């Protein structure tokens, strides 16, 4: 079975930046995800939702990217929230305890709306 290559896309909704990750986020592809998060933070964007609905796999490298992004955006006075975790990704997030570090939403729209409440 050949899995889909890692892809990153971005969009905005109600002043919140949404990054969509899909495919496999591993040591080879993590830098692309890191660049997406870093470029938003560098441009002063501090309300970020990472939608991982298309992510089929996340390695420790991918987790490191999410954690580093969270720390940096919080230092800038914002937050990074996760949405749409698939079961296999949710399992990794839970096993590593990241579910206690990140604010996680079932739906992207809920994550976006949480910034205005």
Task: Summarize the structure in words.
This protein has 4 helices and 5 strands, in the order ββαβαβαβα. The chain has 117 residues and is of the alpha/beta class. The protein has a 5-stranded mixed beta sheet with strand order 1-2-3-4-5. The N and C termini lie far apart (43 Å).
CATH topology: Transcription Regulator spoIIAA
Order of helices and strands: EEHEHEHEH
In terms of quaternary structure, the protein is single chain
Number of helices: 4
Shape: globular
CATH architecture: 2-Layer Sandwich
Q: What share of residues is helical?
A: 25-40%
Let me know the average pLDDT.
95
Compute the separation of the termini in Å. Answer: 43 Å
Low-confidence stretches: none
Strand order of the largest sheet: 1-2-3-4-5
Largest sheet: 5 strands, mixed
Number of domains: 1
- Which band does the percent of strand residues land in? 25-35%
The total of beta strands comes to 5
CATH H level, superfamily name:
STAS domain
**Secondary-structure content class:** alpha/beta
Key descriptive features of the protein:
117 residues, alpha/beta, Transcription Regulator spoIIAA, 38% helix, 32% strand
Tell me briefly what this model is.
This protein has 117 residues and is of the alpha/beta class.
List the helices and strands and how they pair.
Blueprint: E1 7-13, E2 16-25, H1 30-42, E3 47-58, H2 60-75, E4 79-83, H3 87-95, E5 103-105, H4 108-113
Parallel strand pairs: 2-3, 3-4, 4-5
Antiparallel strand pairs: 1-2
């Amino acid at each position: 079975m050949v899995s889909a290559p890692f892809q990153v896309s971005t969009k905005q909704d109600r002043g919140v930046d949404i990054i969509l990750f899909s495919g496999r986020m591993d040591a080879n592809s993590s830098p692309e995800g890191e660049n997406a998060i870093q470029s938003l933070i560098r441009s002063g964007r501090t309300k970020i939702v990472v939608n991982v609905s298309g992510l089929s796999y996340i390695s420790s490298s991918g987790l490191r990217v999410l954690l580093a992004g969270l720390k940096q955006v919080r230092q800038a006075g914002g937050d990074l929230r996760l949405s749409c975790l698939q079961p296999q990704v949710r399992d990794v997030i839970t096993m590593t305890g990241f579910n206690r570090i990140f604010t996680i939403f079932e739906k992207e729209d809920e994550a976006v709306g949480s910034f205005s409440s």
